[in-house]
Amino acid sequence: MERHRPTLDAAVEAVRVRGHHTAYPESPSRSVYGEDAAPVGQAAFEARLGADFPLDGPGDRGRVATERSPYGPVLGVTYPRADADALVAASTRALASWRRTSPDDRAAVAVEILDRLNRRSFEMAHAVQHTTGQSFVMAFQAGGPHAQDRGLEAVACAYDMIGRYAGESRWEKPQRRGGGLVMAKRYTARGRGVGLVIGCNTFPTWNSYPALFANLVTGNTTIVKPHPGAVLPLALTVAVARDVLTEAGLDPDVVLLAAEDPDDRVAADLALRPEVRIVDFTGSTAFGDWLEANARQAFVSTEKAGVNTVVVDSTAAYRPMLANLAHSLSLYSGQMCTSPQNLFVPSGGIETDEGRKGPDEFAADLGAAVADLVGDPARLAGVLGAVVGDGVLARVDAVAELGETVLAPTAPAHPEFPDAAVRTPAIVRLTADRRDVYGREHFGPISFVITARDTDESLRLLRETITESGAITASVYSTSEDVLARAEDAALDAGVNLSENLTRGVFVNQSAAFSDYHGTGANPAATASLTDPRFVAGRFDLVQSRRHA
Amino acid sequence: MERHRPTLDAAVEAVRVRGHHTAYPESPSRSVYGEDAAPVGQAAFEARLGADFPLDGPGDRGRVATERSPYGPVLGVTYPRADADALVAASTRALASWRRTSPDDRAAVAVEILDRLNRRSFEMAHAVQHTTGQSFVMAFQAGGPHAQDRGLEAVACAYDMIGRYAGESRWEKPQRRGGGLVMAKRYTARGRGVGLVIGCNTFPTWNSYPALFANLVTGNTTIVKPHPGAVLPLALTVAVARDVLTEAGLDPDVVLLAAEDPDDRVAADLALRPEVRIVDFTGSTAFGDWLEANARQAFVSTEKAGVNTVVVDSTAAYRPMLANLAHSLSLYSGQMCTSPQNLFVPSGGIETDEGRKGPDEFAADLGAAVADLVGDPARLAGVLGAVVGDGVLARVDAVAELGETVLAPTAPAHPEFPDAAVRTPAIVRLTADRRDVYGREHFGPISFVITARDTDESLRLLRETITESGAITASVYSTSEDVLARAEDAALDAGVNLSENLTRGVFVNQSAAFSDYHGTGANPAATASLTDPRFVAGRFDLVQSRRHA
């Protein structure tokens, strides 16, 4: 703990102040990570391909290999196939001792795991790139340091909350006849039980770490169930965690991997076990809703589909706005849960520093900005990455059925991986009455420029569609403080985080650990924010003892 | 706010330190509350009897009068009969402006309500006495200052948590090429919606205030649905709240009363409304379970039945132990959710400062201690109070069917109220195999002395019965630190708060605001503690906005 105390204290302070903070540098540069880090990481990744992933654990159901890179190659890594009974039994056995490990020791273990993951960031970057389809730099950042920072943020939140409400006290009640009635009291933050973290295909580490690390610090064991398409990043994580636990003389089964054949449906099985008291899930609305309705014995946090919204009213920086939006639409081919989908513009057009722009002109200019961004093959690879899954490809390729295509998707060749599935963003024009189309999520590089009567209608539609279908992000462009205030009002009612007039190097789809909340829990897209007090507080109970002192 | 700042700051500090703290003196003495407070309060209460309770509010479904004092008289106070549609509509209307009232202003309103309630403590004491059957002094304390302190504790928890996670920040990310990327961010704690607080018959204010005041500070409106047998204490509370809101220029419908005819089933109706996003309930396991299963749109907190347990292993203070236990069993005729029910003693007896006592002797001595305590007519009224409800009377009167009666209940005359339903505690001997009897709650003055093989079996049965049927309290007597440690271990596993070797003026059924948690949420007796972080964190979302600075 002594070694990790400065990291932890700084993180706790950062969570409170919510300014810029990072413990893990986001730049994949040699000056930060060392001369050898990149080639060593790449070699480590390549050595895993086609090989068995060494991971001991309970159960004996053979091995599974389920991953194919969106860039082409089959990974061929094999993992132990999850045996639900054995996993639950092992996790429950590990719970008794983990609950009795002090919060300080649990936090130290968590930070040590994160530090080691950080040193493996290059290996992780390749693993994330070739499971999610993210570009290498994005995979490095989002899958490595940014995910590690989010994990540390969860450690800090949990550690801070436990420290604030648990511990010891001396209660001394003055008595009328002099002397005091004195009690010594102890409050223990008691983990609720076995946690189940169900990872997604697109952000296997970033979306799982807050839950995994909050679970650890609050005294819960965790079974990590990766998406069959993105096992390796979480297998690496679990292996590192088990190493740290073992070296600390603790039960490695505090963290377990549940890799499965897609037909095993092990997530649904595990989620209903009475021992499983916490479930975290990122993925489809259908399965998220099912978990909420059925895993009644557990504290369930889900992140599901949504209709991220941009309201364009006016701007004093037309080109920077277009560039910012183009980047947001293109980044990882719109496959972020934070990517904008619905852009509302008033029928009368928008006032800009380049004069009034009608909806048609805005749509065309936005399309041109996107085409310009992704037209350069060098940038294409870094911005778009590859498309994950046939569902996204099918949706993009059928986009013309949705409305008038302003920008048609293309399938350019990837400069490095000839078999990569690459698509440039599609932009479709819709009128406000086509809520049947834009009122639901079209996951992937598909967005809509929707003509509203005026900005009032745009804000009303933001409020209504997000209240109904949820959203992780919303964004507004206006030169009017009055419009911005009304947008904030609408966002507050809809319960969505709002970015205003982003034109510089901050994008609506990016949230910064220790500062930005991700999601709110106030609309159907997610039940909680990462990492707000509810997300952490649901993971432990306070159990007290007292005696005369 | 300025006026209430010292009260609030001290309360926030107290919640962290968890030592002795109180803002509202518990002594009903003239030196504290003034010469006239007692007669003025009594007169105010008497003026309400047989009269219409003046409370404006939405709806027009006539009036209801449902209260009869456990001490005899029908109260005859009439209240507006709840109109669920009108209440939900009014509460939802009030929500928009209340959400936009600042946390500081909301906290100030909450503290002002509590301060005014404190000044009405004598009137409240009579109202609580004649609805719950508590003795006057207990009704004054538990219904007045102790409830107010619990309310203030909830205000402090909520205010502290909002202050810690919401507010504003400046985010400045250093850029490689110099200069910083600077964002101004704002985080708003957004109330989840309409809250429903369902009161109980025995502690209408104490069990409702944490939810009501946590709701207020976190930006939720609240409909207070009292038990038909204990309306007046909550009607007084709601009336005071509405006065404060109105005087502050705010919508009084932020707090509404839902008095009902018992056949109206308005609680079940309200709990399922989509606008109702928070439900708090104290009462039967059946209805609590129903709420948890059905009010899926809401954050539901329940407190239900349990089997509070005492493990007697050994003691160095036999008589003080007996006196302490006798008091705990007798207080309010065992009608506290914290009253002990199951006392486990080893078959070989217990070592004491008066030599070894076998189970029979312990049971007889405990019976004698209880008989001695309640045998004095002067103390009888102050300790026992009156029995609330025919269900309790029926259970007590049939106690001989449960096992061998060590102490038979009696029905002494109340010195002041000839029609009061008074019962002294019954104690029944059972063997450990009669889990069919002691494994469920027998609400009222009924307890069991249960012979276990040894203390190990006692602890095993504590662990098992509480895991299965829940408990709000547990208690252990032992001179062995090893046994105490094992008892703490068992209590931690069962998720129950443990009192150890209580012999002086602290009783297992009493919990101190700002210091003791009440319940844990870790066993079936309750989903949360009052007032732990989960209890508060479930009541708001964090919604963020950000822009370039």
Automatic annotation (TrEMBL), chains A, B:
UniProt keyword annotation of rRNA-binding present: no
Transmembrane feature ranges: none
InterPro entries membership: Ald_DH/histidinol_DH, Ald_DH_C, Ald_DH_N, Aldehyde_DH_dom, PaaN_2, Proline_metab_enzyme
The keyword Zinc belongs to this UniProt entry's keyword annotation: no
Gene3D superfamilies in the record: Aldehyde Dehydrogenase, Chain A, domain 1, Aldehyde Dehydrogenase, Chain A, domain 2
UniProt domain Aldehyde dehydrogenase: residue ranges: 81-489
Domain of life: Bacteria
Keyword line: NAD, Oxidoreductase
A Pfam family of this chain: Aldedh
NCBIfam families: PaaN_2
Name assigned to this protein: Phenylacetic acid degradation protein PaaN
Gene name, Swiss-Prot/TrEMBL: paaN
